[in-house]
Amino acid sequence: MRPDSLAELGEFGLIDRIRSRFPAPSGVTGIGDDCAVIPQRSGNDTLVSTDMLVEGTHFLREDITPYDLGWKSAAVNLSDIAAMGGRPTATFLSLALPANLDPGWIEAFMNGYADISGRFDTALLGGDTTASPDRICINVAVLGECPSGKARLRSSAMSNDLICVTGPLGDSAAGLKAILQGVERDADVQRLIERHYRPVPRVPEGLELASNLYVHAMMDISDGISSDLEHILEASDLSAEIDVDAIPLSAVLKRVCKRYGWDPLALAAGGGEDYELLFTCSRQAEMVLTTPHFVIGRILSARPGPGRRITWRGGTPSAAGFDHFKKR
Ligand code: ADP
Ligand code: MG
């Protein structure tokens, strides 16, 4: 049956439709991972990804500083290269801007963009600029590279792998909640908002993890772990169990949640934009990994039943990730 609206189809339903219309050429990883992987003759693979930020959907112009917006626009794209275990090489920046925007705003935006790009030696090599009737829209495309065949795909998880994350989850979602609810910005809340506005892509961590043969699947956490892990399980046709108590939570998150009666686990599991890496690896590999990480669960071969592929041990987080079209 044909769905009547995008809300019914959902963001991922729409992407599936596009994917079935445009199958990737042989040897190329196309739609469905954090980046496309395009083999080159040089012995390297080229990684490509693109991500858009729309005023009103991804940010509120009256709250985010232009510096932070520039930072975040580059950072979320660099994170997709990190997710593959690659090294970012270049970005392209396209801007749709209202004509009355202050030139000082653009200057500050560029400073944020340059600071995070410079941290990973990534050059801005092009883009496009156009007028927008009222809202700001930013699109970044990012290029990266990795040795041939070494990109970590969502489809390479293996049965009995451990499931790990590189850092605490939920800070960014709590920062967003604080912004939307207009809570007082003391030092703790400010720290969470900073995690939301200035994510640091885990590029060195991704490179280090990808240098270990037994680190199998990897992705970055942009939509929330419950939704993102589903992507790995779907692509690998496996299931998983997660120990809710093992999900790492920062002390700041716990303090702020206690104060406002928020559920830190719902934020950590269902909230997005942490941009930590989520990866699976064999037990032997986990013992020797030098990259800081937390083990939160295991990959299982049998599915828990029809529908979702994740069994939560110790509670079920309430929120279920972020879909751009589905009503919640
Ligand atoms: P991420 O959260 O890593 O940015 P998304 O969930 O946005 O990834 O996208 C999932 C996959 O679908 C990616 O491989 C992305 O390139 C692809 N994709 C998303 N939107 C489109 C589109 N409009 N056309 C083609 N591919 C798309
Ligand atoms: Mg991603």
Topology, please?
Elements: H1 6-21, E1 36-39, E2 44-54, H2 66-84, E3 87-97, H3 103-119, E4 123-131, E5 137-147, E6 162-165, H4 171-181, H5 187-197, H6 203-210, E7 215-220, H7 225-236, E8 239-243, H8 251-260, H9 264-270, E9 277-281, H10 283-288, E10 294-300, E11 310-313
Parallel strand pairs: 3-4, 8-11
Antiparallel strand pairs: 1-2, 2-5, 3-5, 6-9, 6-10, 7-9, 8-10
The protein binds adenosine-5'-diphosphate and magnesium ion.
What does it look like?
This protein is α+β, with helices and mostly antiparallel strands and 328 residues long. The protein folds into 2 domains: 33-147, PurM-like, N-terminal domain (60s Ribosomal Protein L30, Chain: A); 154-313, PurM-like C-terminal domain (Phosphoribosyl-aminoimidazole Synthetase, Chain A, domain 2), CATH 3.90.650. The protein has 10 helices and 11 strands. The radius of gyration is 19 Å and the shape is globular. It starts with 5 loop residues before the first helix and ends in a 15-residue tail after the last strand. Residues 34, 80, 83, 219-220, 222 line the site of magnesium ion (MG). Magnesium ion (MG) binds at residues 34, 80, 83, 219-220, 222.
CATH arch. level architecture of the largest domain: Alpha-Beta Complex
Small molecules bound in the structure, each named once: adenosine-5'-diphosphate, magnesium ion
- Main beta sheet: strand number and arrangement? 6 strands, mixed
Helix count?
A: 10
Q: Order of strands side by side in the largest beta sheet? A: 7-9-6-10-8-11
Q: Span between N and C termini? A: 22 Å
CATH class of the largest domain: Alpha Beta
Radius of gyration: 19 Å
Helix coverage percent:
25-40%
Number of beta strands = 11
Query: CATH superfamily of the largest domain, called what?
Result: PurM-like C-terminal domain
CATH names the topology of the largest domain as Phosphoribosyl-aminoimidazole Synthetase, Chain A, domain 2
- Strand fraction equals 15-25%
Secondary structure class reads: alpha+beta
**Overall pLDDT metric:** 94
What spatial form do the alpha-carbon principal axes imply?
globular
**Uncertain segments:** none
- Count of domain modules: 2
- Reading the helices and strands in chain order gives HEEHEHEEEHHHEHEHHEHEE
